[in-house]
Amino acid sequence: MNGKKRSLVLVILSLIAGMVYLTPLLRFSFYDQMLEALQITDVQLGTIGSIYGIFNVACYVPSGILAEKFNTKKLLMVSTLGMCLTTVWYSLYPGFTALLVIHALYGIFSVGTFWSPYLKAVRQLGSEEEQGRIFGLSEGLRGIGQTIAAFVCLGAMGLFATQAAGFRALLWINVGIFALLLAAVIFLVPDFDRQSDKTDAPETDSLEKSSKKEKPSILQTLFSSSTWICIFVILCGYTIWNTANGYIGTYCTRVLNLPAGLSSTLSIIRSYIIVFVAGLSGGFIIDKFKTKGLGMLTAFLLSGVSAAGIFLTGNLTLVPLCIGITIVLSYLANVIKATYWSIMGDAGIPVASTGMATGVISLIALTPDIFVSPVISRFIRYGENLGQIETGFNMMLIWIVVWAVLGIVASLILKRRKEKNSALS
Questions:
Q1: Which residues, other chains included, contact 175 with Cβ-Cβ below 8 Å and sequence gap of 6+?
Q2: Could you say which of 86, 232, 248, 313 would form a disulfide bridge with 318 (CB–CB 3.0 to 4.6 Å)?
Q3: How far apart, in whole angstroms, are the C-alpha atoms of residue 74 and residue 94?
Q4: Among 225-234, 255-264, 341-350, where is mean pLDDT lowest?
Q5: Distant-in-sequence, close-in-space partners of 74: CB < 8 Å, separation ≥ 6
Q6: CB neighbours (10 Å) of residue 359?
Q7: Residue 121 Ramachandran class (φ > 0 left, ψ -120 to 50 alpha, else beta)
Q8: Full-prediction pTM beyond 0.85?
Q9: Helix axes of 115-123 and 42-69: crossing angle, nearest 10 degrees
């Protein structure tokens, strides 16, 4: 592909990635509207979210298997078509049981048939030297697409007299977007599986050796040292991102005593603007380093320093400086998240093994979605029970520093693996 074609394909893939997660998670932006439109309770909406989360986790490994067994382009078509038809069903406002089935299907189409094929496709859009910027750009474009779609949906809801009518219109907007993305995949996205790959990493363990002859099995992937290097790095990065993204906003409100309006404004900056900036700039920055491991090491080091800086300035009531450092931490966390999938080549995972590897890596490395909230919420409750809410948040900041240190260790291992691979080649 030439540069323009490659850029167009990256935009299409990134927009799909944004939409397949925006639609199932409409409750994040339209919680009250959903309750009224669907005539359900808070508990029922929570159950719907749980069903979606369960199917997400359950589909990571199957996604890797599908990515290895079936054509990437066809899986992307299945995902966009499945999301489109499921959303049509959603717009009919079926009963609660049907809503559970709908969100189970969302889990299947947004992860099972999409996640690993998407990562596999994006990885093939650039050389190993370009992986950071390719994944960073994808993350930035994904954020832009989600932001625009969310604001379009918000504007559409305001045009109708009732929440039910407005939310139905919102769903049909999503249907239309998925239909357009399906057409884009059919006519504009190439058949990746027909393109020969000449950039496989040197053979360093059973995963690399098996991939030269046949697709690796789940066990080969699971017991590959390359897989576990990626898991270690991504687990550390995603834990820091999950913590910072979920709790820095309430830290500003409850510890720094910022007005709710100002805190919300800062949260919007962190949730949208920072994601976009980090995605676009972070990839280029990471690619400037000699190895991805060295780039990740630097990002983890600065993240730990930033968390320590928040701890010190917050306790010294240097509020403006503390706010500035929270923005820096958010930027660094998003740089790591935007680029951590670019490390697969340096870790020694060949392009041919991407599908299975991303499925296994995701199953373990993305578990912070499960354990971060229970841990941090208990830190906060501990501080509340002491009558010193800042104590709980200080524990959270120490938690970030610990994971940053672990991330530095993981990055050193990644750096040494790359140097070993280079020596062998």
A1: 84, 87, 88, 91
A2: 313
A3: 29
A4: 255-264
A5: none
A6: 26
A7: alpha
A8: no
A9: 50
Q: Which of 149, 175, 176 is nearest to 30 (CA)?
A: 149
Question: What is the helix (H) or strand (E) element at residue 38, kind and residue range?
Answer: helix 27-38
Phi and psi dihedrals of 53, rounded to 5?
A: -65, -40
Whether residue 133 contacts residue 126, with contact meaning beta carbons closer than 8 Å, is answered with: yes
The model's pLDDT over 25-67, given as tens digits with 9 standing for 90+, comes to 888 677 778 888 999 888 898 888 888 888 988 999 999 999 9
Q: How far apart are CA 51 and CA 104, in angstroms?
A: 6
Answer whether 26's CB lies under 8 Å from 110's CB. no
Work out the number of other CB atoms within 10 angstroms of the CB of residue 130: 16
Contact 373, 53 (CB under 8 A): no
Token reading at 177: 């977007």
Cα separation, 300 vs 241, whole angstroms: 11
Q: What is the pLDDT of residue 308?
A: 97
Q: SS3 breakdown of the chain: % helix, strand, coil, rounded to 5?
A: 85, 0, 15
CB neighbours of residue 314 within 10 Å: 23
> Other CB atoms closer than 10 Å to residue 268's CB: what's the count?
13
User: Cβ distance 38 to 93 under 8 Å?
Assistant: yes
Q: Name the residue type at position 164.
A: A
Residue 50 to residue 67: CA distance in whole angstroms: 25
DSSP H helices in 255-388: 260-268, 274-288, 292-315, 319-339, 344-347, 354-365, 368-386
Q: Which residues contact 161 (CB under 8 A, 6 or more apart)?
A: none
